[in-house]
Design brief:
The chain is elongated, with a radius of gyration of 22 Å. A hairpin with a 2-residue loop joins β3 (74-82) and β4. The chain contains two helices and ten strands, in the order ααββββββββββ. The chain has a domain at 44-52 and 63-150: Immunoglobulin-like (Sandwich). It has helices spanning 8-21, 26-37; strands spanning 44-49, 64-69, 74-82, 85-93, 101-105, 110-114, 120-126, 129-136, 143-145, 148-150.
Length: 152
């Protein structure tokens, strides 16, 4: 006689029993809650697009350029490593309007900046790792870059 595979109810009961024996570690739950808190429901996503390399540049010791496109808004970022930290300068095109501001977010801190009349902003001393830039435009949905990892 060949053994029969367990039916669905027996399998579900076994899974329930097994799940009670191995709880999720608290640090994993805390990391999941922290990641969930970083979401921006309703935000338009700006995705990275290719940026042509400037002609005549030979050195890899220069700032990194990244462009994000959200359709109606383009964000150019220049990331420059400095003493193990990162300096970030950016420009939004077209200018998102009066009272617009940007937030540069990492998993542990958020820096907020007003935009210059040309749509520029800068932040210095960011920790390396994951970051996202969010443009808040009065009367419109925010635009957020996808989370991007930068290493010095």
């Amino acid at each position: 006689m060949t053994p029969q595979p367990p039916d669905d109810e027996a399998l579900i009961a076994a899974l329930r029993l097994a799940s009670g024996n191995d709880p999720v570690p608290e640090h994993v739950s805390a990391a999941a809650r922290a990641a969930f808190a970083l979401r921006l429901p309703g935000a338009a996503m700006a995705r990275p697009v290719a940026v042509p390399a400037p002609s005549g540049v030979r050195s890899a010791e220069r700032a990194r350029l990244i462009r994000f496109d959200a359709g109606d808004l383009v964000l150019d970022l220049e990331i420059d490593p400095a003493d193990g930290l990162l300096d970030l300068a950016g420009q939004l095109l077209p200018h998102p309007g009066p009272d617009a501001r940007v937030e540069i977010r990492t998993p542990r801190l958020t820096e907020s900046r007003a935009l210059s009349p040309a749509g520029r902003f800068a932040v210095t001393g960011l920790p390396p790792g994951w970051f996202s830039v969010v443009c808040h435009r009065p009367g419109r949905s925010p635009v957020a870059t996808v989370w991007t990892r930068i290493r010095p």
